[in-house]
Amino acid sequence: MIDEKFSIAGIEEVLEIYLGETKLSEALTDVIIPSYEIEQRIPFFFKSRKAKDLADYDFKMRDVARATSAAPTYFESMKLKASPPVDYFALIDGGVYANNPSMCAYAEAKKVYGDKEDILLVSLGTGELTRRISYDESRNWGLIGWARPLLDVVFDGVSRTVEYQLSQILNHDESDRKFFRFQTKLETGSDNMDDASATNIRVLKLKAEEMINKSKDDIDALCKLL
């Protein structure tokens, strides 16, 4: 109740192993990765295009991954050393405002390409929550009662809102679809964000296979466009 759920030692060790000294500028394609700066209270984006131009902004990939995965209540926030005029950035999981970062990617593409290029956007979900929050149970919750459930509500609500917005913008003509969203409902297994048990990983893989089979027509249509 008074400390983060997990130590950062495990995640930092894994990031060190897989990402090592790789820099943001070395991304094989352009990427934009969201985080949130809690002291300045602003969305913070790691952009590979910017990192290629500004050495002071070319952070290590492992630090970027650590910042964007610092989910409140699960991991402590990330203190990332910076260059003047600021000494550091205090960062948490970008999911608090961009759990579905598709709209951020769309805005970035419009900024870079304007109307010169058609934009085709593919969004891959990580599972849609289906667990009900009972009115009778939740109506008298306070800070402690709402702490974890509220995080799920924020993540899920933001994700679905972005899906709706992009569908309206890019799929106004069904014969000329420019937005594809692939998502599955987590009605089986556990939808706890930190459940990495072997059983749950197996269930999630099966859910992915099920989604692929159900989305065959959309996948075929997307492949033709690509």
SSE inventory with pairings:
Elements: H1 9-19, E1 32-37, E2 42-47, H2 48-53, H3 61-68, E3 78-81, E4 88-93, H4 95-98, H5 102-113, E5 121-124, H6 135-138, H7 143-170, E6 179-182, H8 198-214, H9 216-225
Parallel strand pairs: 5-6
Antiparallel strand pairs: 1-2, 1-4, 3-4
% residues in beta strands: 5-15%
Low-pLDDT ranges: none
SSE string, helices as H and strands as E: HEEHHEEHHEHHEHH
Q: What's the rounded overall pLDDT mean?
A: 91
What is the radius of gyration computed over CA atoms, rounded to a whole number of angstroms? 19 Å
Global morphology? globular
Note the main sheet: 4 strands, antiparallel
Number of helical runs?
Answer: 9
Gap between N and C termini, in Å?
48 Å
Number of strands: 6
Helix vs. strand class: alpha+beta
Report helical residue fraction: 40-55%
Biggest sheet: strand arrangement:
2-1-4-3
Give the tags.
single chain, 226 residues, alpha+beta, four-stranded antiparallel β-sheet, globular
What does this structure look like?
- Helix content is 44%, strand content 13%.
- It has a 4-stranded antiparallel sheet with strand order 2-1-4-3. A two-stranded parallel sheet has the order 5-6.
- A hairpin with a 6-residue loop joins strand 3 (78-81) and strand 4.
- Helix 1 runs antiparallel to helix 3.
- It is globular, with a radius of gyration of 19 Å.
- The chain has 9 helices and 6 strands; from the N terminus they run αββααββααβααβαα.
- It has 226 residues and is an alpha+beta fold.
- It has helices spanning 9-19, 48-53, 61-68, 95-98, 102-113, 135-138, 143-170, 198-214, 216-225; strands at 32-37, 42-47, 78-81, 88-93, 121-124, 179-182.
- The longest helix has 28 residues, at 143-170.
